[in-house]
């Protein structure tokens, strides 16, 4: 480069910087300074919080939400979750997609979707490769179950293909195509990389590219200049892994983050005095929390005792004490907004001392009984356990709380990890969930006993309904099946449903965020306000 | 005894220490009389209240009176500290005297045992033990006993080694006195003095360890009040109210200061040669 060119470049850079800085100052003046981080370092940077660090950039080995928040920004899918308050999808790489028959989905790709790194245009071959490698035995993908009964993908033309299932699999529209296993990778890039990638990726086709990963510090995504959707909104997205929500809130208030989830306990304070130029939004969550009872335990095999415990737990008190009134009692394991959600549970959320005592007497334990409650050592759980302890004591049920650290807790009900599962009596549990009811019920079938079914609940009717509901494409019939399954769970006395929690999020007004109906961020759709 | 108290009162720091320790002991012993509320009774409607005449230190997330929980938490802390230090002291004295007075090979074995225990960082050892057997009051006691024995044992062994070659011990041996008699009548009275100072200095350490484990949810089981679990509640509620943190930390600070001042004063009393030398 000649000297004069260098000088011009410097001048140009200065001019650009000046304009950006002026713009930033203008916005800062208008918004009180909160949005200045968007223009930090002369670039338009979005700084967001994730609750954990990147683990894999390979859709076949994605470890869940944390990885997917990144992957959904760098890869394309046939369809993406639609931002908003109601579950739905919108087209992404697909120009069209339809359920052709109960076991086939036909799609046509948009033309001109380019993979980075010189890996060419996206074709139906890439879709076939992406989906089939996840179900291939050789891949040993941890996410294979999300594809359910997927058999193969046939290539009908360069841009057209058919997704073929062995049996009808309606959940594909909710938890496969728009989620982790729906990410489309470049066949040539992946084959060149040996069929598997880790925390780097050879090629992407989404609005952002993976630029850098500093373990436990940040993941940096940069704008993909070749994105088929035009120009992505931000030069860079910095995703900071911050485990503790209170810490993340402090970072947000200090202006170091543009978006974060905040603790439920902060909601009332943030509503009363929100940080300047910020917006708090509350979304219902898909998580489900419940107290399970081991039906094979000698004491808890008494159905009347289980029902006494169901009626002795006061869920509204738990909502106030553990969730600061920011969450609602649940009616089952399927959250509002999803097919199969029950409007009402069979056992009212409020405790019923008379009924609890009645069941206790029927169990032959009028004189009182002592049971154990195993709990993961987290603040909300410990508080919940103490509320349960206090309300159960009112009917003569003495609850001994056993706190466990994470490693010990998650092996409690695993029958392959020893004999401890036999000692479980009551257990306070919390599962995450994808937006399809099958994702909730799958863990309570008989074959899951000793794996995730720690209550060791077994009901032939439940198992039959679970298998049938997964293949049912009529949503009305499907909903009835899932409602019935939750009725059966509750009637067994082995479950006391607590809550689906809630997802309160806060963002600065310089950002126009995009969330799924459960409050999870869709960074690819985040924009400047 | 009165003379000793008089001398401690003559030292300003000793007086402060004695006052704080007495305050802690009395409030713990009389907790059930002084506490205005049941420390585990829930009153969710009154949760997260600030200090008032009704609740002197406010309430926690379950509406429990923090003042009552602090008083009963003191009872738990004192109980754990006294029980565990007493047991550790007894075992440490016996093992230390055996090591110092016994044959060389036995001394080596006991010292190897002490060194092995001390090679584990206390907190790591505690966390591992709790993960294996589960949290409870007795687990905390066992952890403190095991980790404290080497401290007392080593001090006693050193004292025993220096005393056992004294002429009056040799004379006793020559007269055919039994080992038990020599240990109990001559060695023990000479080695216990420094141990009391050590023990009084150890009490705040033990209380802090119990509070630390309870803070991590690995100490006493809920709903038993503990200063550590009050602090943990406070940490989780820090953005809602500062009072649980304040309520949990004040007694810890006061007890640490109290026992440290008292221990130093006792040391000066028992061994004037060490006065102000540390």
What this model shows, in words?
Chain A is of the alpha+beta class and 529 residues long. Chain A has three domains: 37-52 and 207-283 and 504-529, D-Maltodextrin-Binding Protein, domain 2 (3-Layer(aba) Sandwich), CATH 3.40.190; 75-201, Dipeptide-binding Protein, Domain 1 (Dipeptide-binding Protein, domain 1); 288-500, Dipeptide-binding Protein, domain 3, CATH 3.10.105.10. Chain A is 30% helix and 21% strand. Chain A is built from 15 helices and 20 strands. Chain A has a five-stranded mixed β-sheet. In chain A, strands 1-10-9-8 form a four-stranded mixed β-sheet, with helices on one face. Chain B is mainly alpha-helical and 278 residues long. Chain B has a single domain (2-274), classed as MetI-like fold (Orthogonal Bundle). Chain B has eleven helices and no strands. The mean pLDDT of chain B is 88.
């Amino acid at each position: 480069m000649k000297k004069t060119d260098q000088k011009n470049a410097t001048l140009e850079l200065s001019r650009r910087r000046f304009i950006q800085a002026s713009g930033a100052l203008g916005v800062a003046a208008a918004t009180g300074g909160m949005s200045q981080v968007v223009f930090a370092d002369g670039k338009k940077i979005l700084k967001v919080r994730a609750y954990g660090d990147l683990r894999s950039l390979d859709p076949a080995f994605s470890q869940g939400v944390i990885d997917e928040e990144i992957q959904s920004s760098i890869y394309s899918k046939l369809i993406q979750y639609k931002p908003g308050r109601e579950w739905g999808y919108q087209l992404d790489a697909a120009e069209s997609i339809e359920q052709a028959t109960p076991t086939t989905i036909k799609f046509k790709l948009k033309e001109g979707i380019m993979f980075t790194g010189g890996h060419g245009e996206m074709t139906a071959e890439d879709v076939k490769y992406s989906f089939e490698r996840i179900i291939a035995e050789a891949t040993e993908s941890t996410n294979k179950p999300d594809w359910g009964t997927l058999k193969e993908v046939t290539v009908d033309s360069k841009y057209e293909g058919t997704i073929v299932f062995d049996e009808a699999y309606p959940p594909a529209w909710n938890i496969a195509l728009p989620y982790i296993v729906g990410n489309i990778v470049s066949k040539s890039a992946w084959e060149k990389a040996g069929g598997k990638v880790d925390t780097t990726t050879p090629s992407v086709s989404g609005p952002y590219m993976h630029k850098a990963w500093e373990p436990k510090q940040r993941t940096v995504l940069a704008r993909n200049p070749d994105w088929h959707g035009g120009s992505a909104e931000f030069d860079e997205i910095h995703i900071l892994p911050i485990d503790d929500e209170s810490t993340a809130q402090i970072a947000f208030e200090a202006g170091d983050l543009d978006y974060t989830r905040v603790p439920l306990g902060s909601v009332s304070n943030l509503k009363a005095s929100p940080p300047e130029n910020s917006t708090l939004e509350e979304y219902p969550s898909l998580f489900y929390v419940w107290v399970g009872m081991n039906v094979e335990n000698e004491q808890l095999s008494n159905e009347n005792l289980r029902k006494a415990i169901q009626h002795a737990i006061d869920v509204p008190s738990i909502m106030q004490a553990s969730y600061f009134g920011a969450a609602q009692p649940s009616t089952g394991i399927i959250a509002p907004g999803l097919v199969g959600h029950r409007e009402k549970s069979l056992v009212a959320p409020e405790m019923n001392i008379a009924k609890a005592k009645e069941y206790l007497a029927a169990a032959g334990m009028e004189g009182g009984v002592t049971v154990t409650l195993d709990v993961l050592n987290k603040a909300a759980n410990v508080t919940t356990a103490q509320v349960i302890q206090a309300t159960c004591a009112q009917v003569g049920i003495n609850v001994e709380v056993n706190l466990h650290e994470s490693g010990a807790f998650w092996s409690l009900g695993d029958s392959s990890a020893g004999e401890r599962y036999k000692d479980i009596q009551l257990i306070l549990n919390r599962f995450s969930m994808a937006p399809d009811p099958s994702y909730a019920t799958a863990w309570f079938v008989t074959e899951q006993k000793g794996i995730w079914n720690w209550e060791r609940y077994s009901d032939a009717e439940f198992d039959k309904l679970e298998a049938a509901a997964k293949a049912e494409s009529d949503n009305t019939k499907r909903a009835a099946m899932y409602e019935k399954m939750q009725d059966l769970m509750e009637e067994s006395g082995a479950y006391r449903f607590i809550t689906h929690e809630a997802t309160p999020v806060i963002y600065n007004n310089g950002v126009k965020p995009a969330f799924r109906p459960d409050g999870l961020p869709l960074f690819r759709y985040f924009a400047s306000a | 005894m009165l003379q000793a108290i008089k001398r401690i009162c003559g030292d300003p720091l000793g007086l402060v220490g004695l006052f704080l320790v007495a305050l802690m002991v009395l409030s713990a012993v009389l907790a059930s009389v002084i506490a205005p509320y049941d420390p585990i009774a829930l009153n969710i409607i009154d949760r997260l209240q600030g200090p008032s005449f009704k609740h002197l230190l406010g309430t926690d997330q379950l509406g429990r009176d923090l003042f009552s929980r602090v008083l009963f938490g003191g009872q738990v802390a004192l109980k754990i500290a006294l029980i565990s230090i007493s047991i550790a002291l007894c075992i440490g004295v016996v093992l230390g005297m055996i090591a110092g007075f016994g044959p060389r090979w036995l001394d080596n074995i006991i010292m190897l045992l002490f060194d092995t225990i001390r090679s584990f960082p206390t907190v790591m050892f505690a966390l591992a033990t709790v993960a294996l057997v589960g949290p409870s009051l007795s687990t905390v006691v066992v952890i403190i006993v095991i980790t404290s024995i080497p401290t007392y044992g080593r001090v006693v062994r050193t004292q025993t080694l220096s005393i056992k070659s004294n002429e009056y011990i040799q004379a006793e041996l020559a007269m055919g006195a039994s080992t038990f008699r020599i240990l109990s009548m001559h060695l023990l009275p000479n080695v216990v003095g420094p141990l009391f100072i050590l023990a009084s200095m150890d009490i705040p350490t033990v209380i802090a360890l119990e509070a630390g484990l309870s803070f991590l949810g690995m100490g006493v089981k809920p709903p038993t009040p503990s200063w550590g679990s009050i602090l943990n509640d406070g940490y989780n509620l820090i953005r809602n109210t500062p009072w649980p943190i304040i309520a949990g930390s004040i007694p810890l600070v006061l007890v640490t200061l109290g026992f440290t001042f008292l221990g130093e004063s006792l040391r000066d009393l028992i061994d004037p040669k060490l006065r102000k030398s540390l």
